[in-house]
Amino acid sequence: MSLRESLNQPEDKEVLRYRTSNPETRDMYLRIVALDKFDGSSWKPSERPVEDVPDVLPSPAGLGPDIRTNPVETQIQATDWYAQNWLPIPYPASEVRLDRRWRFEPEGRTIVGDRGQTTRGIRYAVSSLAVDPPPPSSPRPHRHPRSCSASTPRCPTRWRRSWPGRRTG
């Protein structure tokens, strides 16, 4: 059964149960797989080399020591009917504790079933990070001059059009 078939059911069905230490669950998401290859009609995951699941997963690109994070612990259980080749894990995961045959795909940061292994009925635990990104850096707001004319640099166009005394026709 594909992910689409699993999720496009005529009625609501429980797929996963989870318990997490993160009090801000609206900012959490479970990543399954990146669909990054388009063949002209559909998106699919790229086929990349896999390796044993490391004890500690590498940090994702762009997550430097200057970014504040908080550790999160999550326990997940998949239902018996939900059979998927990729393991849903909180992003960014730092450690995955599970039994059975699973492999790690480092570039996509996904956990892949090995030799037919699926999520059907699996229980597992994940350590991840709640990322607290810095506020976006933005340039100082530009202050418009107290008076404007058509030749004033950075004078808002709408001011030039409606400036008193200026002919518009």
How would you describe this protein?
The chain is mainly beta and 169 residues long. The chain has one domain (3-132). It has two helices and eleven strands, in the order H-E-E-E-E-E-E-E-E-E-E-E-H. The strands form four sheets. It has a four-stranded antiparallel β-sheet, with no helix packed on it. A three-stranded antiparallel β-sheet has the order 5-9-10, with no helix packed on it. The chain has a two-stranded antiparallel ribbon with strand order 2-7. A hairpin with a 4-residue loop joins strand 9 (102-105) and strand 10. The chain starts with a helix and ends in a 7-residue tail after the last helix.
Tell me the number of structural domains: 1
What is the H/E order? HEEEEEEEEEEEH
| Largest sheet descriptor | 4 strands, antiparallel
The average pLDDT is: 82
Find the structural class using helix and strand composition: mainly beta
The fraction of residues assigned to DSSP E strands is 25-35%
Distance between the termini: 67 Å
For the biggest β-sheet, the strand order reads: 1-6-11-8
Residue stretches low in confidence (pLDDT < 50, at least 5 long) are 159-163
User: How many runs of DSSP E, i.e. beta strands?
Assistant: 11
Shape: globular
Number of helices: 2
Instruction: Give the C-alpha Rg.
Output: 25 Å
What percentage of residues falls in helices of 4 or more residues?
under 10%
